[in-house]
Every structure is written in C-alpha cells, then in structure tokens.
Amino acid sequence: MSTSRRGRRTALLSALTVPVVALLLGASTEATAAPAESPLSAREINDVNADIQANNHTMGSQIRRVEGDQSTPDTKAAAQQPQPAAALPNQVAATVAGIDVSGYQGNVDWGNWWGQGKRFVWTKATESTTYTNPYFAQQYNGSYNQGFIRGAYHFATPNTSSGATQANYFVSHGGGWSRDGKTLPGVLDIEYNPYGATCYGLSKASMTAWIKDFHDTYHARTGRWPVIYTSTNWWNQCAGGDFSSTAPLWIARYASSAGTLPYNWGYYTVWQYTSSPLDQDTFNGAYDRLQALSNG
C-alpha cells in the first residue's frame, strides 16, 4: 500500500464515529452512536472497510480459522488458574488477566476492562510493512493512562519482506520498548497465512531463519528479545529452531489447557485462551513477575 493511500485510510477512519469493521465482524467495541449525517460517502466507508479487511489481521484470527475456538465458560475459568510446569516446579502460584486488541476494537473503554480485572494488554501496531493500526494511539496510550502494563505486536508476513525489514518497521511504528515499568517487549505474531500457503511458501529452515532475523533485529533496536506468539500446530508444521532461551512464549489454544508447547519451550509466559467476546489472555505468574517482564 502506498504512503498516500495509507494516510488517506487513516484520515477516513478518524472521521468515523463507529468503527464500521467492528460492527460488521461483531467485534467488541466501545463506540458512540453514528451521527445523523456521516461526513463520508457510502463508497468511502466501503473502501475503508475493504482496505482494513485486506490488510489487518488480528492476533489469533488465523489460528481460530484453522484450529477453531473450543473455549467454554469452564475452560475460560480454568485458564485463569495457575498452571505449574515441569520446568518451573512450585513456582507458579498466581496469574494476571489481560487482553489483546487491534483496530477492530476501535476506541476502547479502558475503564471498563480495568473494572473487569484486566491488568495488561498488547495492541496491534503493524502488519508486514504496509499497515499501521489507526487506533493505535488511543489503545496504546489510553491503556497506559488507565494503569495497564501495555505492549505492541506485529502480524508477520514472512513472504513479503525480510525479518529485519519487518522488525525495523514495527519498532519505527509503535513497537519499541522503554524501561518505565509499564511497557512490555514487542511481540512477533507468527501464525497461519491469511493470504495463501500455510507456511508462506517457506521451508522450515527458511522460516526459522526469518524468525531469527526478526528476533535479532528487534533485540538490536530495543535491547529486548521479542515475545513470540504462535500455536503449537503451526510452529511444528512451519518453523523450527530453539528460541526458548531468549524469547518468552505466548501460546494460543482455545481449549481447556495450553496443551503441548512448541519445541523446547518448557513453559508458556502468556496463554491466549479464548477469542470470545474478544481475545483474552493469562500471564502465567504473579503481578510482580509481569512487572519484571516489563522492566527487563
């Protein structure tokens, strides 16, 4: 997408009172009623929606598409309980509740989610090198002002440009990090390809090299290793390599447990356990451990 087109999309979106895509997809959003007379024509609104749907894929959207969401009220309750792991015997005694959001949620009512006990959030910043979340500032800064420990994530498309190129784009568009006690390291969201071949046409070796390129470049730019978000099924099919000593694992599985983890990760740091009514997550540790992750 050209810079001019991306800027026009952002300008058009800022004029919308109700995030139209959120309404079309049934996403959870806090929005006021639409004005009697929209400043945009129907064609412009349709263009904005088509552009977002083509270029904005939320964290886990492709995992849900391929693997499904089997979460229930019981599994959601279980996911918020401590999940000890063999790698951390007797060390996981608490959890912290969180969410992740993207442009589909529009302007988020952070007070509402704080009141529901959520204490951390990751917000989508970028996808490939062609998309930036037009609601990023409200979501990223608004959550911070409410008291959340917040971070940003990047939806990767490994067939469009190098890992280094996408890491640099991410850092330059909201994915950086600062040791302020309230900012989490950035996340590499690597999952099923929404545009074509499951593994983006890459071999396991090439995919692993791409992830390492992103991983190393993000560290060089920020001083932090990125969190890696994925599902075990996708990782085992498409990627390899051992990132367990540097990259915290954010596992996606919408069921009664996080299940078997990808290669050599002995425990998960975050578990995305449902996509309903929006993506909800559990940090596998107490609040002071979440603060430690933030502080590096």
What structural keywords apply?
38% helix, 8-stranded mixed β-barrel, alpha/beta, 296 residues
Concise overview:
The protein is α/β, with parallel strands linked by helices and 296 residues long.
Strand content: 5-15%
The strand line-up of the biggest sheet is 1-2-4-5-6-7-8-9
Helical content, roughly? 25-40%
What is the H/E order? HHHHHEHEEHEHEHEHEEEH
DSSP summary, beta strand count: 9
* Overall geometric form: globular
Q: Specify the structural class.
A: alpha/beta
Mean pLDDT score, rounded?
A: 85
List the total number of helices.
11
Distance, first to last CA: 35 Å
Gyration radius, rounded:
18 Å
**Low-confidence region ranges:** 1-6, 10-38
Region (Disordered): 57-86
Protein name: Lysozyme
Biased composition (Low complexity): 77-86
Signal peptide: 1-33
Description:
The chain has 296 residues and is of the alpha/beta class. The chain has 11 helices and 9 strands. It has helices at residues 3-15, 20-25, 42-55, 61-67, 73-79, 110-115, 136-146, 163-175, 204-222, 232-238, 287-295, and strands at 96-101, 120-127, 131-132, 149-155, 187-189, 227-230, 249-252, 270-274, 280-283. It is globular, with a radius of gyration of 18 Å.
